[in-house]
């Protein structure tokens, strides 16, 4: 029987002429004219003859072919079709080999419509790209467990608590996305990792803000007419967030009113109305200068492509050895409103684009306090440009 199962030799495999040669036990060598050949296993399943290719002789040695033949004959004895079983195993292996990087990119793509500007600012993806994917990106998503996640996040868990929290949140979304694709993943891995990482010691701190009395002096230094200086000036004058400002398009300005699309406002949903920003004379002058530097209608373009970044404006203040950052000017404005004016709460909060009141109250309120805010921001512009005046009182509509 041994001779019947091992009729060929490694030497004969190389020297045999074209034709079909049996090694025994259903293993055959199909030799071609060009010297190459193919291993084939013949089996009978459910009364039907099947021929299963095992690979070319250039890649599969005689010994490996015999080992494969033994394995698949055992499968046949279980009344399973070895060809179908091999395909099933391949499909399962493919599920396990989806890399986290691929899943993360697919998850991001499927969520772009939910993100501001389709996620072009990169804030959704960047926690993954910076802190997760460099170490776990090439790991099959099915193999990622809580210890992997703990090890990759532990260096920033306390030092960069908010960033680590975002990274863990994004990774959880990716694992759920993989599960929705039918992949075998542990969707509880992130919560288990959170338990392993423990309570974060770091407490979130507010973005440093410049005291409102110091704003005029800083505003005066923004005088060179560059995109960065003009962007910071308009940011200070309007009190808007940096996102809408950086993506300010000329088409959004009508006279002395800048209309920010509702979807560009932080925390807003698709049905949120647009937000109108009254522009003071000083703000209009800044816009006039910015138009001369605009590209494709965007008033604050970056040097190469796209628009000016948050980092560009922040670095200007950082290089000046300031603790304050651009976003903090919203706090400067709010403090000024509280301390130097007698502005009603609703008007003050609306000036910063905050949602005021509950859903029912907002449904019945038909004003956005545009005229009151126009007066308020005109007064703020006078303060910012170094002009002084008396405390003002605004009457709520």
Automatic annotation (TrEMBL):
UniProt name for this protein: Prophage CPZ-55 integrase
Q: Does the keyword DNA-binding apply?
A: yes
- A GO term (biological process) for this protein? DNA recombination
Name the UniProt key words of this record, in alphabetical order: DNA integration, DNA recombination, DNA-binding
Entry's family note: Belongs to the 'phage' integrase family.
- Keyword match DNA-binding: yes
Q: Which InterPro entries match?
A: DNA_brk_join_enz, Integrase-like_cat_sf, Integrase_catalytic, Integrase_DNA-bd_sf, Integrase_DNA_bind_dom, Integrase_recombinase_N, Phage_int_M, Phage_Integrase
Q: Name one GO molecular function term.
A: DNA binding
> Which Pfam families does the entry mention?
Arm-DNA-bind_3 (PF13356), Phage_int_M (PF22022), Phage_integrase (PF00589)
Q: Which segments constitute the Tyr recombinase domain?
A: 205-377
Q: Which organism does this sequence originate in? A: Rhizobium favelukesii
Biological classification of the source: Bacteria, Pseudomonadati, Pseudomonadota, Alphaproteobacteria, Hyphomicrobiales
